[in-house]
């Protein structure tokens, strides 16, 4: 078992939740949270990378 991670089980022994010690397993939590955000945003509209580059780099040129 991984240190800082504890599973909670129901009366039948089935895992129902997990507790993560954030001091010991901060990176594990960050990975889990990033994945959850990605899944939540999966249906959001996307913008092509080239359009983002033009927008960002265009702003940079105007300021300079």
The first-to-last residue Cα distance is: 54 Å
Average residue-wise pLDDT: 90
Structural Rg: 20 Å
Q: Please indicate the percent range of residues in DSSP E strands (runs of 2 or more).
A: 15-25%
Which structural class do you get from the secondary structure elements? Answer: alpha+beta
Number of strands: 2
The largest β sheet comes out as: 2 strands, antiparallel
Low-confidence stretches: none
Q: Which percent range fits the helix content?
A: 40-55%
What are the secondary-structure elements, in order, as H or E?
EEHH
Shape: elongated
Note the total helix count. 2
Strand order of the largest sheet: 1-2
Primary descriptors:
two-stranded antiparallel ribbon; elongated; 64 residues; alpha+beta; 2 strands; 2 helices
Structure described in brief:
With 64 residues, the protein is an alpha+beta fold.
Task: Describe the secondary-structure layout.
Blueprint: E1 5-9, E2 15-20, H1 26-40, H2 49-63
Antiparallel strand pairs: 1-2
Describe this structure in words.
The chain is α+β, with helices and mostly antiparallel strands and 64 residues long. The protein is built from two helices and two strands. It has helices at residues 26-40, 49-63, and strands at 5-9, 15-20. Strands 1-2 form a two-stranded antiparallel sheet. A hairpin with a 5-residue loop joins strand 1 (5-9) and strand 2. It is elongated and about 60 Å long. The mean pLDDT is 90.
